[in-house]
């Protein structure tokens, strides 16, 4: 076997069973807020979920992420207070009728989940000049979001729920977690075993927003360009119907 051949993965396509499992994981992933159980996450499961995040793609192989595991009740209480302050501000931004619906939503599980996790981005980790980031400096942040998605899908495959707490001032998180100025808190997550996963995204089932039609979001060659040809449009609609049915 040549060196080039030995550097190749043995297979190009996944098996039918693996492919079905991947799509099932993607389609059944949910943003969890109110279904957390108090059971601790086993270390070996947590390690697998974190390694999935660490193996996310990153531009220039910069790997800008770090993972802060938050178990301290005192730290979580401070994060909860920061959320409540931001949530009150957010509610005031909506019209009165929508604000009432907003306040009725449970939007975090900070104290309910057995583990909180902050995924950060160190904007200086790979040095001042990074391959692939020279003209799009925000690629380190986008790369970190890939790690968030990897973790979320791995957690779902392990039967763990994840909830992203985004209604919080980043500066408050930086202070609470002792982050240096160069480190951005990209995602504050609640993680743990759950009683169940909802059949549909909670915001959809409660009428906040519905999923858009994929075929309306695909254009040819440019923004606002021609719609997909009828065959592709039909395939997109069929694929979305398959997804809505659970895959």
Folded structure, characterized:
The structure is a single chain. This protein has helices at residues 3-6, 16-28, 43-54, 73-91, 96-104, 139-157, 170-177, 202-205, 230-244, and strands spanning 65-70, 115-122, 160-165, 183-193. It is an alpha+beta fold. The protein folds into two domains: 16-210, NADH Oxidase, CATH 3.40.109.10; 212-247, no CATH class. The chain has a four-stranded antiparallel β-sheet with strand order 1-2-4-3, sandwiched between helices. Helix 3 (43-54) packs antiparallel against helix 6 (139-157) and helix 4 runs antiparallel to helix 7 (170-177). It starts with a helix and ends with a helix.
Strand tally: 4
Could you list the spans in which at least 5 consecutive residues all have pLDDT below 50? none
Helical residues, percent: 40-55%
Describe the strand arrangement of the main beta sheet, using strand numbers.
Answer: 1-2-4-3
CATH class of the largest domain: Alpha Beta
User: Any idea what the CATH superfamily of the largest domain is called?
Assistant: NADH Oxidase
Number of domains: 2
So what's the overall shape?
A: globular
Instruction: Report on the biggest sheet.
Output: 4 strands, antiparallel
Distance, first to last CA: 40 Å
The helix-strand sequence is: HHHEHHEHEHEHH
**Annotated CATH topology of the largest domain:** NADH Oxidase
What is the radius of gyration?
Answer: 20 Å
Report the β-strand fraction as a percent range: 5-15%
The total count of helices amounts to: 9
Structural class assignment: alpha+beta
Gross CATH architecture of the largest domain: 3-Layer(aba) Sandwich
């Amino acid at each position: 076997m040549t060196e080039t051949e030995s550097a190749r993965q043995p297979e190009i396509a996944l098996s039918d069973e693996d492919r079905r499992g991947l799509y099932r994981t993607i389609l059944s992933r949910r943003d969890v807020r109110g279904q957390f159980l108090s059971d601790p996450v086993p270390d070996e499961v947590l390690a697998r979920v974190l390694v999935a995040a660490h193996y996310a793609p990153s531009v220039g192989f910069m790997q800008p992420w770090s993972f802060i595991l938050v178990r301290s009740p005192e730290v979580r209480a401070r994060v909860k207070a920061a959320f409540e302050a931001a949530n009150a501000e957010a509610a005031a931004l909506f019209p009165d009728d929508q604000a009432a619906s907003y306040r009725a939503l449970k939007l975090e599980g900070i104290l309910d989940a057995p583990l909180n996790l902050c995924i950060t981005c160190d904007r200086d980790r790979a040095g001042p000049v990074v391959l692939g980031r020279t003209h799009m400096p925000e690629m380190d942040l986008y790369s970190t979001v890939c790690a968030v998605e990897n973790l979320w899908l791995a957690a779902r495959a392990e039967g763990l729920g994840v909830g992203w707490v985004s209604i919080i001032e980043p500066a408050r998180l930086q202070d609470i977690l002792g982050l240096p100025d160069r480190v951005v808190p990209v995602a504050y997550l609640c993680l743990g075993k759950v009683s169940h996963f909802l059949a549909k995204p909670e915001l959809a089932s409660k009428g906040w927003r519905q999923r858009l039609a994929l075929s309306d979001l695909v254009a040819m060659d440019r923004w606002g360009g021609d719609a997909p040809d009828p065959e592709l449009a039909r395939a997109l609609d069929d694929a979305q119907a398959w997804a809505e049915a659970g895959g």
